Amino acid sequence: MRPSAKTNSSIALAITMSTFVGVLLSCSVTRPPTPASPEPAAARFPAVAPPLADVANAYVLAGQRALPVRKGEDVHGLHNLFQLSANVWSGSEPDGEAAFEELARLGVKTAISVDGKRPDAELAAKHGLRYVHVPIEYKGLTDEELLQLAKTFRECEPPFYLHCFHGRHRGPAAAAVGRLVLDGAAREQVIAEMRQWCGTASDYEGLFRDLVLKPMPTADASRDYVFDFPAQRSFGGFREAMVDAARRHDALKKLEKRDFAIDPAHPDIDALESAKQLADTFAISGTLAEIFDRPADFHGWMEVSKVETVALRDALQRLRGGDATALAPARRAYAAMTKACIDCHQQYRNH
Ligand code: HEC
User: Fold this and answer.
1) Is residue 17 predicted with pLDDT exceeding 90?
2) How many Cα neighbours within 13 Å face the side chain of 258?
3) Tens digits of residue pLDDT in 135-146
4) Which DSSP symbol is given to 66?
5) Which helix (H) or strand (E) holds 75?
6) Are 90 and 175 in contact (CB under 8 A)?
7) Cβ-contact 217, 136 below 8 angstroms
8) Which protein residue has the closest C-alpha to ligand 1 atom 3?
9) pLDDT interval class at 299 (50, 70, 90)
10) SS3 label, residue 130
11) Please, are residues 114 and 134 in contact by the beta-carbon 8 Å criterion?
12) Is the CB of 113 under 6 A from ligand 1?
């Protein structure tokens, strides 16, 4: 029986749709999309080291394998930069256009941000780099995040540049996933690189623990997982307030060492402006409905942050007006605010 015209057009539509989906879900335009019946995915990637057993403290274990001493490089707006393998680089958030130029010069093809901040995908694209945004938390890696990372490593174009804000904790943990799934590296090796080279701190034992104890997605599992490789994700709300607070706090941390005076090397960073924005951030985020149900100590630290950022702003305003006696209260407010960040994270973010 001849197929009817209707059947023909639905076949055509189905083909068009599947091509469309294929284009949407494939990561790199320079690589052909995965064929309909591919060779077994496992054949194309190295075997991933199985999880270790009986690890009491993964941070301690990360100190035990002796690695040669290496220090991160600081070049053109990239900080704490390490080439971990032919496939994987780790470092800080690219700071300005020169940083993307440098990444392109290094041959990097795909940048993966695991920070909460929306990446500058347009600037990256100008330099031929593709961004994939997989924000992770400090407490550890969820199974979903591992699938997103493994799929990106296996299907986007290498080499990869993994970054968070400073390139010390979450970025190196995600880079370690790349070392496991692309390079077939040993579990003990990747956590040693995090701790001994990149400087991932003991506060984030959860990141170390997941890298040694969790099974990594198999090549078949990541191939079958549906993910559209988003270049940018936005959160809004409390998480975005935190992303913003981190940048302002970082500026203040640098300037505190100079009695909050402008650094001629970075005239664009202003302590008073940063303190004003931080005070606004805490005033607004303290009213967000999403934190209403948080426990009393959380609200206590929010209150300290609110009061101390206002005190800092006012002291810096007086200092700017020539009142040198305002330096001591500015320092005190800065320290009290910083302590609230650390205390609250210790309780509600890092574990
Ligand atoms: C009252 C508690 C509290 C205070 C105070 C606080 N934070 Fe946070 N912070 C959190 C929590 C909870 C998260 C995790 C939020 C999430 O991922 O949704 C977080 C997340 C973050 C993140 C990660 C954002 C990302 O990229 O995903 C950074 C960076 C951060 N905070 C910086 C700061 C800085 C800097 C300060 C002080 C100026 C501060 N925080 C004060 C509770 C707090």
Assistant:
1) no
2) 15
3) 999 999 999 999
4) -
5) strand 73-75
6) yes
7) no
8) 344
9) very high
10) strand
11) yes
12) no
Nearest Cα residue to atom 28 of ligand 1: 242
- The residue whose C-alpha atom lies closest to atom 31 belonging to ligand 1 is 242
Reading the block at residue 46, the tokens are 């190295």
Is the confidence at residue 34, as pLDDT, over 80? no
* The dihedral formed by the CA atoms of 222, 225, 229 and 234, expressed in degrees to the nearest 10: -120
Bridge pairing between strands 78-83 and 73-75: antiparallel
Model confidence at 201, pLDDT cuts 50, 70, 90, reads very high
Q: Which residues pair with 192 in a beta bridge?
A: none
Indicate the Cα dihedral angle 140, 143, 145, 150, nearest 10°.
120
Task: Answer yes or no: is the C-beta of 119 below 6 A from any ligand 1 atom.
Answer: no
**Is the distance from the beta carbon of residue 298 to the nearest atom of ligand 1 less than 6 Å?**
yes
Task: Report how far Cα 315 is from the mean position of its chain's Cα atoms.
Answer: 33
In the numeric block, which tokens belong to residue 340?
């609230």
- CA 88 to CA 110: how far, in whole Å? 10
Task: Enter the DSSP assignment of 286.
Answer: T
27 CB-near residues (< 8 Å, 6+ apart): 110, 130, 132, 152, 155, 156, 157, 229
State mean pLDDT over 40-56. Answer: 88
Q: How far is the CA of 239 from the centre of ligand 1 (A)?
A: 7
Residue 169 tokens read as 């904790």
Nearest-CA neighbor of 213 among 46, 48, 55, 62? 55
Helices 327-348 and 296-320, packing angle to 10 deg: 160
Count Cβ atoms below 10 Å from residue 29 Cβ, excluding itself.
10
Q: What pTM was estimated for this model as a whole?
A: 0.88
**Residue 42 — very low, low, confident or very high, per pLDDT cuts 50/70/90?**
confident
